[in-house]
Amino acid sequence: MLRELWAERDPRVPPHRRIDADGHPTVAELEDSIRTNQPSSIGLLAVERKAAHDVIGYCGLIDAGRGSEGAPELAFELLRRVWRQGYATEASLAVLDWARSSGHERLWATVWEWNTASRRVLAKVGFTETERKEVDAVYGTTLFTTRRL
Ligand SMILES: CC(C)(COP(=O)(O)OP(=O)(O)OC[C@H]1O[C@@H](n2cnc3c(N)ncnc32)[C@H](O)[C@@H]1OP(=O)(O)O)[C@@H](O)C(=O)NCCC(=O)NCCS
């Protein structure tokens, strides 16, 4: 599923997050990275549909590391074939509960300015856009959004 996500990423996503000309990351490399990055109070979780039992993407918390005062960052990505059915919103709300119960008091989320769907999901689950932005001449502007828990 992760390999498929990587393969279908928008061409505006920077190349280091897309499959390279030699086919990396491979399924084995992605598998290895899952095994070595087990979730604790942060981490990416598989989004599984209860009825179909299929994994359709991930949603979780990543170490922000972008000067976000130690608060983790919400992240999500789903396969294109399941977009626009409310799954990212539902998964994000579950992750917000998890974050709260782990003792986190604030989350951040960064999003490309052009990413309308993701901005809409973040707004629906209570994130607000801050003044902070990072402008990249090639890939565009990253917006910083935040939510208290
Ligand atoms: C962002 C993403 C996870 C959204 O998943 P999803 O399950 O489709 O999200 P939801 O169905 O919960 O909500 C999507 C909202 O965006 C809206 N939307 C989707 N595409 C849109 C578009 N092109 N223009 C305007 N609104 C759009 C939907 O109408 C919906 O809002 P609504 O409930 O008010 O109608 C999915 O598009 C994705 O995986 N994108 C690629 C990865 C990515 O961008 N990750 C986030 C990085 S910050």
UniProtKB/TrEMBL annotation:
Q: Which GO terms describe its molecular function?
A: acyltransferase activity, transferring groups other than amino-acyl groups
**Alphabetical list of PROSITE patterns matching this protein:** GNAT
**Ranges where the N-acetyltransferase domain occurs:** 1-149
**Looking at the record's lineage, which domain of life comes first?**
Bacteria
This chain belongs to the protein called: N-acetyltransferase domain-containing protein
Q: What organism is listed for this UniProt entry?
A: Planotetraspora phitsanulokensis
